[in-house]
Amino acid sequence: MAEVNTSFGTTVKKILHRYFIKAMGAMAQGLFASLLIGTIFKALGMIPRLEFLAQIGGYAQAMAGPAMASAIAYALGGHPLVVFSAAAVGQAANSLGGAGGPLAVFFIAIAACEIGMLVSKKTKVDIIVTPFTTIFVGGVLSILVAPHIGTLVGYVSKFIGWASIQTPFVMGILVSVVIGICLTLPISSAAICAGLVLTGSAAAAGASEGLAIAGAAAVAGCCAQMVGFAVISFRENGVGGLLSQGIGTSMLQMPNIIRHPQIWIAPTLASAVTGPLAVCVFDLKMYGATINSGMGTCGLLGPIGLILGWFSGENAYPYEVTVLNWVGLVLICFVLPAVLSFVFNEILRKLGIVKDGYMKLPE
Length: 363
Known about the structure:
Blueprint: H1 2-44, H2 52-62, H3 64-75, H4 80-96, H5 101-119, H6 126-144, H7 146-163, H8 168-184, H9 189-196, H10 209-232, H11 234-246, H12 254-259, H13 265-281, H14 301-311, H15 323-350
Helix pairs in contact: 1-2, 1-3, 3-4, 3-5, 4-5, 4-6, 5-6, 5-7, 7-9, 8-9, 8-10, 8-13, 10-11, 10-13, 10-15, 13-15
C-alpha cells in the first residue's frame, strides 16, 4: 500500500512539474515576448519621431495568444508540427477567452498539444494529421470552453466593480490587492480594468471620480506586485530578473508561486498598503487610458498613464496637479513597493517562511 501511495505521489509531482512549472513558466516567457515587449514598444512610440515603434508594438501584442501557446508546446517537448500548430490554437483561445484569455490559452494549449503528440509521427501523412488534430482539438475547446473561462474571470471584474464604490480606504485596499494579484496570475488585469472603465477620462462614457480613484488604486497594486517581486528576488535573479519582472511581468514568478505560495505574501501586503495611500494620502486619480490602470510598471505604462491623464487636454483632468501628486506617484509606483516588499520579505525570511532559491527564475 505504501508503494502505491509513493507511486501516486510521484506521478502527481511529475504532472504538477510538467504543467504548472514547465508549461506555465514557458507561457509567461511567451507572454513577455509578445504582449509585454509590445507594450514596451508602444511606450517608446510615445516619444516624438519614434511613433513607428508603437506600430511594431501593436503587431507584437496581437501575437500574444500564438506566442504563449507555442511556448507551452515547446516546453512540453512537442514535435515541430505540434509547436507550429499551437499558434492557431493560442490565437483562438486568447481571442475567445476575453479577460481570461491567457488562462484559456494555458489549459487549452496543453490539451491540444498533448493530443497532437499522440498522433504525431504515427502516420505517413503526418504533415496533415498532426496539424489537423492539434488545431481541431484546440479550436473546438476554444469555442466550447474559452468563453466560460472568460465568464469566470468576469466574476473578478464584478467584485472589482463592487469594491470601486466602497469608501476610498476600503476600495484602495481591495482594488489594489485584487488587481495586483490578477496582474501576476495568467489572466489579463489590463483587460479587466478596460472592461470596468477604471479611469475618470471624459472620453469614457459615464465616467466618475470613483472610477478614477479605483484606477489609481489598481496602478498601485500592479506596481507593488511587479516592483515587489523584482526587488525581493534580486539575490536569486540579479539585474536580469530585476528588469524582466520590474518592467516586464511578475507572472514570471507563477511557477515559483505554485511551489512556494508564501513568496506572494510580501508583494501582496505591499499592495494592501500602497493602494489606500495612493487614494487617501496622495490623492492620485487615473485619467489616462483604461488599459494603463492594469499595467503597473510594465513598460512604465501605469505611471505614464497617470501623467498623461494629468496633462492631456482630451481627457480633461479637472484638478490641479500638485507637488503631493508627483511625490505620491514616485513613492506609490516605485519606492514604497520596493521598500515594503523588501521589509515584509525579510521578516518572512527571518521566520523561515521564505528561503533562498524560492524565487529563482529559469535560465
